[in-house]
Specification:
This protein has 676 residues and is an alpha/beta fold. Helices cover 45% and strands 16% of the residues. The two termini are 69 Å apart. The relative contact order is 0.08.
Length: 676
């Protein structure tokens, strides 16, 4: 299987399994909670908490208080005309030995007409039936609304969610549920957004109900439409006024007008407190302030809904395989750094979606898969590299064995790990190849250099003998052999050139010198060589002798194949990156199907107008030399319309041209400035 496909499937599976199983849900909660600290907003002005705080307890007395104080409080608030009043206090039992107090309290509630009382849902232990505590019938009949004062905790004990609908099931059939306390208050205040109006669904339990200890059918809590609260700030963020200050009229006129008033316990050690994403162990949030955050979140339509699991799995799988786009292209260090940045980007993306679109997409599945991306990819690539290395190594050893070049490896397989053993074998095989390469170069040097001497001597001796019918033929053969040896020598020099010994040189002056070298040959054919050169020096890094010979070979070809009294154009153009040399002749041209052969070793574009002599190494030498100089060479030609050879070389940047060289160039006069 392809390495990339295998890695993609493995990462997608890891992402889906981790996402669906929720084994890293605590990590999702961790960065979700951190994100809440970056989304704090100013508390809404229309929500006020009347706090039963330490100062109120000290002034009024120990908790719980008589309901006559609550009656008095309501009477104060009625005059201020708030939108709604919510008591975060349960009144499930009547006032002891004071029925008239309950009647007065109920009358005040009914007179206000906008009071919401809570229904408490609680279970004495895990798995027990849920107990539902309503206000006394007298109070329940007087209120404007009832709501569940129930908060579900996540696995880490932190309160992040509320359910828009909850109810109890008896015998497998759901009974009518109640809205959440915060939802009921907004309904009474006529501030509930339309999308928060959740209709209770029909839910049937898969498991049958069980009997409780007292023989009655156990009640189970069923919930629907979970939402995450978008907390506005840390505990104490919402506007608060002490309960005792309201009783003492210590507030400005109109302070409670058109506001949602929440009444609850904030004194430490008395009321329910919750750990939230914006609190710590030392600073939990009171239940009434949690409800204030819920009301503010609902009011602004910024509740966060959990994305469906199939969408989470699909998105995590896609995010997990994205690193494959760069793992195959970047070096290891850059790949690891980019993966680290990518992890942060995914977390920020998840928090941004929750903040701007109100959808929570936990990405722990993608994150853990991405952490495995580089190890899995490296393992697969290393395994593939080892298999490929073993195949190529065996092929090279077989070829060397056929040449009688294989020696003993002297690798102790029992004491060396497999990878190190492979490396040792590669080193030994590479040494054999270097020996062969050196032998090849020595042979070329011998053929091209040492054979030239006897060929030259034979040519000199032939000139001393009296000419006969074989002399001219022998001379041509010796000249051709000498030319081939010279071609071998120059090709060998180009192939073995050390680029570290290159130095800066002016390509304009070098080209001018190459033109001067072909002056005598071009005069014999009465050719006109027209030049178009930059006025300034153009510097390249290279070997003067190799570049001079390469350009001379191009010019000699142009001179050789140009008809008499024709023109050859030599053009040098430069930009910020490279210098372009064009040599344009008016010769017979090269057939299109043979252009690809002209730069190959021992290849010549034979044709009707092509010269018969030559070894086919001239343009091969040009190609090797230009590539050694990090350049390129090409030819454009049409049969019968001449040829254009184009050489491109990278420019060597200098601070300034040499003054001496610039002056020399300025006063240099080419013999081709005049027509021949």
């Amino acid at each position: 299987m392809n390495d990339k496909l295998f890695t993609a499937i493995a990462l997608a599976l890891i992402a889906c399994v981790v996402g669906i199983s929720e084994v890293l849900v605590r990590f999702d909660h961790l960065y979700y909670d951190l994100g809440r600290h970056f989304s704090f907003k100013r508390a809404p002005d229309n929500i006020v908490i009347v706090a039963i705080d330490e100062r109120s307890i000290e002034a009024i007395g120990s908790w719980p208080w008589s309901r006559r104080f609550h009656t008095e409080l309501i009477n104060h608030l009625i005059n201020e005309k708030p939108k709604a009043i919510g008591f975060g206090i349960t009144f499930s039992d009547p006032e002891r030995d004071a029925t008239e107090v309950d009647y007065a309290f109920a009358e005040a509630i009914q007179r206000a007409g906008n009071i919401v009382l809570p229904v408490l849902l609680e279970a004495p232990y895990v798995g027990a039936s849920v107990k539902q505590s309503f206000p006394t019938p007298l109070l329940a009949s007087a209120v404007a609304g009832l709501g569940r004062l129930h908060v579900s905790l996540d696995a880490d004990g932190v309160a992040r969610n509320l359910y828009l609908w909850e109810g109890l099931s008896v015998g497998g059939s759901p009974v009518l549920g109640l809205p959440h306390f915060s939802q009921a208050i907004l309904q009474v205040a006529n501030l509930l957004p339309a999308n928060m109006n959740i209709i209770p669904p029909t839910i049937h339990l898969a498991k049958p109900s069980v009997s409780s200890e007292n023989g009655y059918e156990a009640q189970r809590l069923i919930s629907n439409s979970p939402r995450k609260i978008n907390f506005f700030g840390t505990p104490g963020h919402f506007h608060q006024i002490s309960y005792v200050d309201v009783l003492a009229n210590k507030y400005s006129s109109g302070f409670f007008k058109d506001k949602v008033v929440l009444i609850g316990v904030t004194a430490k050690g008395l009321g329910d407190v919750l750990l939230t994403p914006v609190s710590s162990d030392s600073e939990p949030m009171s239940m009434i302030e949690f409800q204030a955050n819920a009301i503010a979140t609902m009011q602004s339509s910024s509740l966060v809904v959990d994305a469906p699991k199939w969408i989470v799995s699909l998105l995590c799988a896609l995010l997990a395989i994205l690193p494959l786009l760069w793992l195959s292209r970047l070096p290891p260090l850059k790949s690891v750094l980019l993966i680290a940045i990518y992890l942060i980007v995914i977390i920020l993306l998840s928090l941004s979606i929750a903040h701007w679109w109100g959808i929570w997409v936990p990405t722990s599945g993608a994150l853990i898969a991405i952490l495995f991306a580089y190890p899995i990819w490296s393992w697969r690539k290393l395994n593939s590299a080892q298999l490929s290395l073993d195949r190529e190594l065996q092929r090279l050893r077989d070829e060397l064995s056929a040449l009688g070049m294989v020696t003993e490896d002297n690798v102790d397989g029992g004491n060396v790990d497999p990878l190190e053993s492979r490396i040792l074998k590669v080193n030994l095989t590479a040494q054999h190849l270097r020996n062969l390469h050196k032998s090849r170069n020595d042979t070329l040097a011998f053929i091209s250099h040492d054979i030239r001497a006897p060929l030259g001597a034979a040519m000199m001796l032939l000139d001393k003998f009296e000419a006969n019918k074989y002399s001219e033929r022998m001379s041509k053969m010796l000249i051709r052999a000498h030319s081939m040896a010279e071609g071998f020598l120059q090709a060998s020099r180009a192939e073995m050139a050390n680029v570290n010994r290159f130095h800066e040189l002016d390509i304009v002056s070098l080209t001018q010198q190459a033109i001067d070298d072909v002056y005598e040959i071009s005069m014999a054919k009465k050719l006109k060589i027209l030049t178009d050169f930059p006025e300034e020096c153009v510097w390249v890094r290279g070997d003067f002798g190799l570049l001079l010979r390469a350009i001379s070979n191009i010019l000699l070809n142009a001179v050789k194949y140009s008809p008499e009294r024709s023109e050859i154009n030599v053009i040098l153009k430069s930009d910020t990156q490279s210098i372009i040399l064009k040599v344009i002749d008016q010769g017979p041209g090269i057939p299109a199907k043979k252009i690809t052969k002209v730069f190959r070793r021992f290849s010549r574009a034979e044709g009707e107008h092509q010269a018969q002599e030559g070894s086919g190494l001239g343009l091969y030498f040009v190609n090797v030399t230009i590539k050694k100089h990090r350049g390129s060479v090409a030819v454009h030609s049409e049969e019968g319309a001449g040829a254009t050879f184009i050489i491109s070389l990278p420019i060597e940047r200098r601070k300034s041209d040499s003054p001496v060289e610039s002056d020399r160039r300025k006063h240099h006069v080419s013999p081709f400035n005049d027509t021949i």
